[in-house]
Write the structure tokens for this entry.
Amino acid sequence: MDLGIKGKKAIVCAGSKGLGFGCAMALAQAGVDLVLNARSEGPLEEAAEQLRACGVSVTTVACDITTEAGQAQVLAAAGPVDILVNNAGGPPPGMWHDWERADFLKALDANMLTPIMMMKAVLPGMMDRGWGRVVNITSQSVKAPIAVLGLSNSARAGLTGYVAGTARQVAGAGVTINNMLPGIHATDRAVALDGGVAQAQGITMAEAKAQRCATIPAGRYGTAQEFGAMCAFLCSQHAGFIVGQNILLDGGGVNATL
């Protein structure tokens, strides 16, 4: 399917690996020029070389997107953009009694306020030009909270509420905002989470993964490639009537009728 976005320009945050890279690759394969961000310059440049093989322009910005300075760097390097993919690493797992105010503020900065500030920066230009796409990578936890991810539950739920209202305010200008809610995917995040389970339960990483896979109807972890394909579709010319939605990509892990 021709997604109709060849020649568009996208910012992809935290896009050097994992789900961010999956989204960047799918957009590059659709002919979208990229402004790619990540914290570490080495992995960022390696990712950019792979993406340039698709025949698109890739501008790299090595910075922490969760800081005001990092956001300013990315926005200055990008200029006017058609597509924004918001992404940032999730906060660490733990228990309710582990977290202090500072932990919540850090989580809110990274996983709620950062995407909000990025949207606030790019939405006016998208609306003026009559076309734009924003995709926020959040978590299945906004549909079904995960107790040990209380910091993530809180921050991402706040972002979801913000998007629910904002998406409907900008849709009439040809701009869509949607959220992608990943379950467990075969990324570094999965390794970290499985490592925590393995340590807590005194089991191997393989046993921790098998234990988690048993809770997923699909019986496996998702891939960054299939996640990226959905992102690219939401950014396409065909998705203009999808507004303010929270799309689960979890292998059926959330058991809900609606």
Q: What stands out?
A: Strands lie at 9-12, 33-38, 58-62, 83-86, 132-137, 175-182, 246-249.
